[in-house]
Amino acid sequence: MVESIIQKQFRQRVESSFNPKLIKIRKSTPMRFPKAIEDYYVKQLKSMVDKSYRYFLSGLPDIREIYYKIKGKRPGVIKLDDDSDELNAELLVLFLMMNNVYNKNDIDRITEQAAKSTSVFNRNQIVKIIMTKIGISLFLSEDWLSEELSLWKKQNESLILNISNKFKSDLSESIYRGIREWKSFDDIVKDIRVSYKKTQRRAELIARDQIGKLDSQLTMLRQVEAGVKSYVWNTKRDKRVRPDHRSRQGKVFKWSKPPFDGHPGQPVLCRCWAEPYLGDILNMPESHI
Ligand SMILES: [Zn+2]
Predict the structure, then answer these.
(1) For residue 74, pLDDT beyond 80
(2) Where are the domains of the chain?
(3) H/E stretch holding 115
(4) Angle in degrees, 0-180, between the axes of helices 35-58 and 82-101, rounded to the nearest 10
(5) How far is the CA of 271 from the centre of ligand 1 (A)?
(6) How far out from the chain centre does Cα 46 lie?
(7) Terminal CA-to-CA distance of the chain, rounded, Å?
(8) Of the candidates 249, 257, 9, 265, which has an alpha carbon nearest to the alpha carbon of residue 125?
(9) Ligand 1 centre and the CA of 60: distance in Å?
(10) Which end of the chain has fewer CB within 10 Å, C or N?
């Protein structure tokens, strides 16, 4: 059987040790989450929503004018025809301005920054955990890394564009529904504000979830490259842990056999983490409770 990276490095440590009997597998300190990077990403995605919203607000006085034109002409039931062309044209201009915020260069820069920093942070955590547990300084070639990061960037680019598209369709829906239902302009503005708030929450949720997913994915790929076959499921041990995950605390899982909802950190906003379980591959006792 071919030795894995971790088995080889560990054997070398044992062989060069003064007293190999003293070498034990220790319990690791908790893996830290890239909170600062998550905050950065949330801030960037929310600021794009803000900027595009400001563009939209800049056109609101024109929309109000069109609204009163429609309302003044046809009390009662409104047929959206010629005036709605004017409204369509106005919205189109505003949406094009909003699209400028979501240009490829900016999205590329933001996702690149988030992906690279998460990767560096994650690598340091994995190296630290292996060092704490068995005293070796893990070195991986990570040939898969650049492809993995560009895949994540692509997915995120499309998620970010989705935030913008959904926002635009919510905004035009608020206006058209408002006109159809004969709402006051103030009420339409209230609906617009609700769409904005909803979009902010969406952007935040996506940003948090995506940093967590990338961090968790890199944990798996790095452990698997090292030759780690299983992990101990660790929760944050607080009230927010979902019941399904609470019952997995301290249990050993195989990387090749994920539970129904995925490995730690894969389910939406899951904060659990995978501590490498080394007892099986190093033929040593390891307590994992
Ligand atoms: Zn969890």
Answers:
(1) no
(2) 29-227, 230-289
(3) helix 104-134
(4) 150
(5) 5
(6) 13
(7) 30
(8) 265
(9) 43
(10) N
Q: Give the Cα separation of 149 and 146 in Å (integer).
A: 5
Residue in the block written with tokens 């801030």: 43
Taking phi over 0 as left and psi of -120 to 50 as alpha, with beta for the rest, 265 belongs to: left
| Dist CA 285 CA 25 (whole Å) | 7
| Cα of 236 from ligand 1 centre, angstroms | 8
Q: Do the Cβ atoms of 44 and 163 come closer than 8 Å?
A: no
Q: Output the CA 289–ligand 1 centroid distance in Å.
A: 17
Centroid of ligand 1 to alpha carbon of 137 (angstroms): 28
Taking the centre of ligand 1 as the mean of its atom positions, its distance from the CA of residue 169, in whole angstroms, is: 33
pLDDT in tens, 13-47: 999 999 988 899 999 999 999 999 999 999 999 99
- Give yes or no for residue 248 having a pLDDT over 60: yes
| pTM for the model | 0.93
Pairing of strands 252-254, 230-234: antiparallel
